[in-house]
## 1
Amino acid sequence: MNGSFKTKTKNKNKGLKLSSPYLVWSLIFIVIPLFMVLYYAFTTENGTFTLENIKGLASLDVLNSLLISVLYAAIATLLSLILAYPLAYYMSTVSKISQRTMIMLAMLPMWMNLLIRTYSLMLILENNGIINNILKALNLPKAQLINTPGAVILGMIYNFLPYMILPIYSIMTKFDYSVLEAANDLGANGFQRFKRIILPMSMPGVISGITMVFVPSVSTFYISQKLGGAKTMLIGDMIERKFQGEVNYNVGASLSLILMVLILISMAIMNKFSGDEEQEVLM
Amino acid sequence: MKKNIIELKNITVAFGEEKVLNKLNLSIKNGEFVTILGPSGCGKTTTLRLIAGFANPNEGDILFNGENIIGIPPYKRSVNTIFQRYALFPHLNVYENIAFGLRVKKVPEKEIEERVSDVINMVNLKGFEKRDISKLSGGQQQRVAIARAVINRPDVLLLDEPLAALDAKLRKDMQVELKNIQKNLGITFIFVTHDQEEALTISDTVIVMNEGVVQQIGTPKDIYNEPKNAFVADFIGESNILSGIMKADFLTEFSGKEFTCLDRGFKENEEVDIVVRPEDVDIVPSLAGMLEGVVTSVNFLGVHYEIIVDIGGFKWMIQTTDEQKVGDKVGLNIEPDAIHVMKKSKYSNLYGDYSSFSDEIEPISFNNEGEI
């Protein structure tokens, strides 16, 4: 008994040593900045404590931005799920070689920087962009694509879709095929098998996919600026403007705080659905 | 005479060039405990999957109660399967796993409750209803798998090596339990295994398969005592298989001596295979026996000794309770009813002598210095 206890503490120490570079990193770049956000959010420019920053956010503008951000992110997440789920299922059923190729193709856009991807989308959607040039060549009327909510949502889907595909696919490849056969064997037709077995078994992957698409979508500012024009002001844009344009760290920090709380709440809701298996997939 | 519930007619299944089943013919009687026995790759699991509906033959017919069922999907067949690794639904608890078949058939909730509680009692899982599948032992998972299948009251239950993952003692208990369940339900069990001892213990009828072909169908006693060819004799139990000549009815010659036997109906001087089971040979003092040989190895197995005796270069295995020493000269006596004569087959001369126990091992060779 004593021996095994000793090995355990020893392993713990070893683990601590191994992870110490990252712990230092996260202290400097994650923990301290988080406290700085808190500090700025609850202080005036002179550094005295105040609740005015937070109170001042109770305006229609902010509420509007929050609502639009959540709405756009939710639509983008839902559409990503609709696109990714059948694809992931299909991928999990084909041969290993095809699986590798398809994963490659799904991952390929992720190797490019998000800014470049968004720029290229701009080129496609612009008033004199590729799509409108094609329409023109076909003697069709021009379409307003850029600077619309649709363009912003398209940008979110385009950029974050792989984060939906991967977790769902990875959980589906772990399915024991005989479990699916067992469902058929016990009398379930294709639809019942999907509803009662495949869907619930893939839920942890779906939940982590939703989290991984929703969170970056709800907080994005770049995509909305490039594809949504000045009209769409997402919460991310608002924060960016406070820091970059108005250089008002205190209001910016309180906006960030609200966004963080929003994300934490949505993650908590997600976790309620998924139990503890989700962690496995996220890792 | 019981009715045939399942008949496979001229079934061929090929994966690419390789024929897994080759013109297989098979009929299974209603209400029997039937075991399909064979080495891995013999086509037994494929046969099961054909009956379940997970695979379709390239050629041939599958009749279920006289009707062809090829093309009918698994969920419409009155057949349920117990899978090798149970294939329980990981996201459902014990109760919901068992209730699954009834739920998809939209059986009223009240009836589901009654039937689930019945089968849970039958497999002794009372109190485990709310338990997570992952928190069950192998034996308990096995019971859930049985309950989940039999609750649907299938006409035929297919069992794909269901006991392979259990330890030896639990396995024996489960064999008895399966047999009892089958008797009580009165339905047909088709049990697939590569374990010959299990097959003999559990079955009414044993179907021995190899290379996609049925080698022999019979009761466990038939299969053991009257194997049809050298493959069956070798696969079921231990056996000394020798080449011999049938001199006349009731008279055969092998190992250079003539023996009285109980077999007849062969041509005069027909070449045959002779099977002598190790437990049927008596060891007597040297010169007093019908055959003479030298003991080359002695293994103590608890119940008896397993002795290898070299007779004219052929290594016999003999099971006896008398200890012998390596190098001893001994005599062997073989009674007429211990000799079983078989027609020559393509398996002749492939098996037989006990230079090694399996056909796969290559003896380790030592060089002069005693190094490997």
## 2
Amino acid sequence: MLAAIVRRTALFATIWIVLSENSAESVAFGLPAVAGAVWMSLRLQSPAHGLRLWRAAALLPGFLAGSLAGGLDVARRAFSLRPVLRPGWVVHSTSLLPGGRVALGGELSLMPGTLAAGCEGDRLLVHVLDCQAGFEGGIGTQEKRLARVSEGP
Amino acid sequence: MSVELLRQIAVYALTGAGLVFFLAGTLGVVRFPDTFSRLHALTKADNLGLGFLTLGLAVNAERWADVAKLALIWALVLLAAGTVAQLVARSALVRGER
């Protein structure tokens, strides 16, 4: 617990220092903001299921490539004279914890052709922009990659 | 060609690319047929637009602290965009727009 508090305080304090350009007069706002963020993060994500940020950094290249492909795909459709959309839904059974599901959903919303709309039980509802483009194939891959970021061996 | 000129070209090219993607996102919102398809356009294209805009501004930045701040802003906006997209999609689904 203590280790989690120290780690999270360091993380949120770093974010505050970068955003406020390390100015002395912003400390009065920064201290309560950081304390509040740590408190809320402990309530929302227990230390037992914390994140390994250095593992998340390993996902960055794949994430950047995916969001580039996703943005290009949707831009191509938006600019085309007659946009080709074959929207539909797929249901993805997931074993991730609730926090992991939200993270997966958020990531899928930036990857090519997929958009998450929350869970029903342990089934993630995913909207697909084009049913014939095979976008849903990436969901399982993203889930496996994300699962490695959670704390564990 | 001087380094400064190359830098200026990079700034214009990157911020220009960012604007093109913001335009694409807006066009998608106007042209796509339903709430969910529009959300695809908005989140993905605007994410990329902000990414290119951030890169362009980072090339133009004079201090590393500014680069770090820009990168952090992009990361925080990404987190917010991914989360908000799910919330909007969820509420549209609950209202029966499927």
